[in-house]
Amino acid sequence: MKVSKYLRFTHLGMVWRRISLFLIALFAVIGLQHFVVEPSFSASSSLSNAIASSSIIAQNNDRLIAQDTPTDATNPSRVTYDSLTDEQKALADKILLFAGGFGLVIYVFTSFCMMKIADKLSIPNSWLAWIPIAQAWVMVRAAGKPGWWLILLFIPLVNIVIAFIILFAMPVNLGKSSLYGLLTFIPILGIFLYFGLLAFT
């Protein structure tokens, strides 16, 4: 087995670009996780403070009874961002920043991978992978299914079954095992592994 057959010098730069893209996405996920790990200890105390502030604990006949606070104009029952303490606002900001950053990383990575998969399968207009609803159409076509299957993805409960069919059919259409679809069940990294392996191998 000749290694040079698979690692030609003309394609070496492209291979390293793909590996570095995958590693950047991986480190971004790990870095964002560490960003919210530190305040996790104070999250439980913030949560208990919020619960304690929304109910009054009264002692009646040697028992503790939780009663909801009365709702009036001065004490609304709905919690808004402005009614949070500084510590709770900081925690909420970090959670929103993490969710937004993680969502952006997933969107960019999956869109790029779907465009590469569409190019592999000679699907016209592979740039549609960057548009949210059109991306679903690209996935349907990459799975070898007719384009009208996109409508099935908007029917409740049916869309779950169709999504699994598409996820397991895409590797088969690329000449790989349908077991690649099981990668999507791995928490956090599964989506990166699934689309990364289909696009770059």
Describe this structure in words.
With 201 residues, the protein is mainly alpha-helical. The chain is built from eight helices and two strands. Strands 1-2 form a two-stranded antiparallel ribbon. A hairpin with a 2-residue loop joins strand 1 and strand 2. The protein starts with a helix and ends with a helix.
Keywords summarizing the entry:
single chain, 201 residues, mainly alpha, two-stranded antiparallel sheet, elongated
Largest sheet: 2 strands, antiparallel
Ends apart, CA distance between termini? 18 Å
Class computed from helices, strands and strand pairing? mainly alpha
Alpha carbon gyration radius: 24 Å
Strand order, largest beta sheet: 1-2
Question: What proportion strand?
Answer: 5-15%
Total count of helical runs of at least 4 residues = 8
Layout of secondary structure:
Blueprint: H1 3-6, H2 9-37, H3 40-54, E1 55-60, E2 63-68, H4 86-120, H5 132-142, H6 149-152, H7 158-173, H8 189-200
Antiparallel strand pairs: 1-2
Helix pairs in contact: 2-4, 2-8, 4-5, 4-8
